[in-house]
Design a protein that fits this description.
about 80% helix, mainly alpha
Length: about 220
């Protein structure tokens, strides 16, 4: 199930990047931590506090500022971003559950192995052999993704989902810089405003989680 969720998340993200500016896609995906936090409350039994719900509400507001339904044409890529972040949240909830019994390296290896038949059955329909440059880039992506999944598994073994997810907001700054300098993408002001609202809400959740753990340790 984790592999299925992860394949859907990756596929949705790749489709989104063909239709949506990088900064917009990443800014909207920052609501993912709030979705993961909601999932942790509903499915992992993590405590549901009023402050968490308020923060999630502000996160949704930030997403609406980016999308602005009714004020601009809805970019189809946004649907794929939403699909990706929901499936990513599902994958991370399974990661948190599996981290209780599985070693991080085994967890990551099983994910990679189980994704192969799923993705190959989809890719074979449109298969083209990559040239050497493309192959090198794909290998680099694979190595980076593998390292990221391993680090994520270790992190979930040591902390709650809600406490970790807020760190994702750093991606907005990185994506905005990459989009501007490499792909010559202009960043809409509403993207920054919505991103700031989302960052503030997720950071608040992380701050409250840290305070709670500090009180417990005392």
């Amino acid at each position: 199930m984790r592999a299925v969720f992860n394949v859907c998340a990756i596929g949705g993200w790749y489709y989104a990047l063909t239709m949506t500016p990088l900064a917009d896609a990443v800014a909207l995906s920052l609501t993912g931590p709030l979705v993961a936090t909601l999932g942790a409350v509903l499915f992992l039994g993590e405590p549901a506090r009023l402050r968490r719900w308020i923060a999630m509400g502000f996160g949704v507001l930030g997403a609406l500022l980016i999308i602005r339904p009714g004020f601009q044409s809805f970019i189809p890529g946004y649907w794929f971003v939403i699909l990706s972040l929901v499936c990513t949240a599902g994958s991370r909830l399974f990661t948190k559950h599996l981290a209780q019994t599985e070693a991080p390296a085994a967890n990551g290896a099983w994910l990679a192995l189980l994704q192969i038949p799923i993705t190959f059955s989809l890719a074979i329909l449109v298969w083209q052999w990559p040239n050497p440059t493309q192959l090198a880039m794909m290998i680099t992506v694979g190595l980076l993704a593998g390292a990221a999944y391993y680090a994520l598994t270790v992190a979930y073994d040591r902390a709650d989902v809600g406490a970790l997810e807020s760190l994702n907001f750093i991606r907005l700054i990185i994506a905005a810089l990459i989009g501007y300098f490499i792909f010559s993408e202009n960043i809409d002001a509403w993207t920054w405003i919505g991103g700031v609202v989302i960052v503030a809400s997720t950071t608040y959740v992380a701050h409250r989680e840290a305070m709670k753990r500090r009180d417990i340790s005392k």
